[in-house]
Specification:
With 518 residues, the chain is an all-alpha fold. The chain has one domain. Helix content is 73%, strand content 1%. The protein contains 22 helices and two strands. Strands 1-2 form a two-stranded antiparallel sheet. Strand 1 and strand 2 form a beta hairpin. Helix 4 runs parallel beside helix 6, helix 5 runs parallel beside helix 15 and helix 10 packs antiparallel against helix 12. The chain is globular, with a radius of gyration of 22 Å. The two termini are 39 Å apart.
């Protein structure tokens, strides 16, 4: 609890003082862009973060004073209520385009859309966690506080134009995630996964921070609009700037599991509590690609760096191919989905390599569709079958008989990951591949389509195990899953179908968010 309190205090500091660079003269050699004072107007872009932070504080107090027999239900209610209020605040800010702290923090349509995605995934994760943490005797208060803290970090990352504030938000998210991964203290694999995640995460943080420092040396700024101006004037061709861009790309590639910086993913996903795995594969990956778009496609003129887009294209092809090939060999469902998430990171990387406006819009839709599906798939794995945790393909045998509705939901998730029509995955892949083809990336498009076809085998294997293979028991008794978990899975099923059948409304919002990027 002390560690959580310390993390929350740091979160408080990082939200209220994103202008530290001015007070500590990080840019002492650059003429200040504004007077050294702030007003209440500066807090307007941070209203959602403040609401979520107050929710976090209330959850901590409830953990201390609410009786243990009611604690879990109270914390679930507080967390869900805070997330819903935060989502309402985000909707009120949509279109207002507020800026605060001298332009360091913004509430543009791009950041608001992504923050709504994080909050939606957080809400579904809490619904899916209610029964899981009780069955596994996990500490209630710390779990919800850390989940809210990770959400605050993601939101801060997406709403900032300042590399140092983005880095701070990234660390809030990362530190919270490290602890969440190790929450199953009685399971050695959970502690091992948390340690690996921590060590490799710290290693990647070094690359990221060193890249920021080199770019500051090359441009004299860590503020993205100022950086872009200096890089376009010729600084991008200097060895210092090129090294900084390379190190930044490496650090960000680790966060989204791009080959060859993906080795942590299967161990962490398989060792972490299953709701946490879903949260990492959905919200954390979405946050990683959000800042990758903001930094690499908006803050850095990659079109002026000869060969850099080609390198990103090869990384995309390598990532999707290795992810799919290794996923074919897995017998553990969580590890299969881990390698599958690597492959999907490769599909998203296609849009980063292409870099056009259409590509940016397509990857945002794909991030949304994949986040919903991944949360739903891992959510179904949190619900026991005949008292057993679903881990291997064998555990899924006969699942359609004992849990027919959940088996149907899992089948829909797998079909969406394949990219079949009438699902969100189909629309996402169609738009990404179409954007690549439109920009004349023929080889990249062909490789992506072939990899998508390759993934059909291991996704259909999940469906075959549920429907075509009998379980160990011959009982036909239908099991009743937990209500909150069923509601959470139902939300993901509805969202997956809605995104596949009626994508136009979301595509319109995404196009507006892309236009607001700066």
């Amino acid at each position: 609890m002390i560690l959580v309190c310390d993390l929350s205090f740091q979160c408080f500091l990082y939200i209220f003082v994103p202008f530290f660079k001015f007070l500590f003269a990080v840019q002492s050699q650059v003429k200040p862009r504004m007077p050294n004072f702030i007003s209440l107007v500066d807090l307007l872009p941070l209203i959602p973060e403040l609401i979520l932070f107050l929710t976090l504080v209330v959850a901590m107090l409830a953990d201390l004073f609410v009786p243990s027999n009611r604690r879990n239900d109270v914390l679930v209610g507080i967390s869900l209520g805070g997330i819903v209020l935060t989502m309402l605040a985000e909707m009120q800010l949509y279109g207002a385009d507020y800026t605060g702290f001298y332009g360091t923090v913004v509430a543009d349509n791009y950041s608001i859309l992504l923050e709504l995605v994080y909050l939606l995934i957080g809400l579904m994760t809490i619904l899916l966690s209610r029964h899981y943490i009780t069955e596994n005797e996990m500490n209630f208060g710390e779990y919800y506080v850390l989940l809210l803290s990770a959400l605050i970090g993601m939101m801060l990352m997406s709403s900032s134009l300042e590399l140092l504030v983005i880095f701070i938000g990234l660390e809030i998210m990362s530190i919270s995630s490290y602890i969440l991964v190790g929450m199953k203290r009685k399971i050695p694999e959970s502690g091992e996964a948390a340690l690996k995640y921590l060590l490799l995460g710290a290693f990647s943080t070094g690359f990221l921070l060193y890249g920021i420092s080199l770019l500051y040396g090359a441009t004299g700024s860590t503020y993205l609009p100022d950086m872009l101006q200096q890089l376009r004037l010729g600084a991008v061709e200097t060895p210092l700037a090129l090294a900084g861009i390379a190190l930044l790309t490496i650090g960000l590639s680790f966060k989204v599991a791009i080959v060859p910086f993906h080795m942590w993913t299967p161990d962490v996903y398989s060792g972490a509590p299953t709701p946490v795995t879903g949260f990492l594969s959905a919200a954390a990956k979405a946050a990683g690609f959000a800042i990758m778009i903001r930094i690499l496609l908006v803050g850095i003129p990659l079109e002026q760096v000869e060969g850099w887009e080609t390198i990103l294209g090869w990384l995309a092809m390598l990532t999707m191919t290795i992810g799919n090939l290794v996923a074919l060999q897995q017998q553990n469902v969580k590890r299969m989905l881990a390698y599958s998430s690597i492959a999907h990171a490769g599909y998203m990387m296609v849009a980063i390599a292409v870099g056009t406006t259409a590509a940016i819009g397509s990857v945002l839709f794909y991030v949304l569709a994949y986040a919903v599906v991944s949360t739903g798939a891992f959510g179904i794995l949190t619900i026991r079958n005949r008292g057993r945790i679903l881990e291997t393909y064998e555990d899924l045998h006969g699942y359609a008989r004992t849990n027919p509705m959940l088996a149907l939901g899992m089948s829909l998730m797998m079909l969406s990951l394949i990219g079949l029509p009438l699902t969100g995955g189909f629309v996402g892949k169609l738009r990404i591949f179409g954007a690549a083809l439109e920009a004349d990336w023929i080889l990249l498009t062909v490789v992506a389509v072939l990899n998508s076809a390759l993934s059909v085998y291991y996704y259909l294997q999940v469906i075959a195990c549920m429907y075509l293979k009998a379980g160990e028991e011959t009982s036909t008794v239908v099991e009743t899953p937990p209500r909150l978990a069923s509601f959470g899975v139902g939300l993901t099923v509805f969202a997956t179908l809605y995104l596949g059948i009626f994508p136009d409304d979301f595509l319109l919002l995404i196009n507006e968010s892309v236009r607001s990027l700066r």
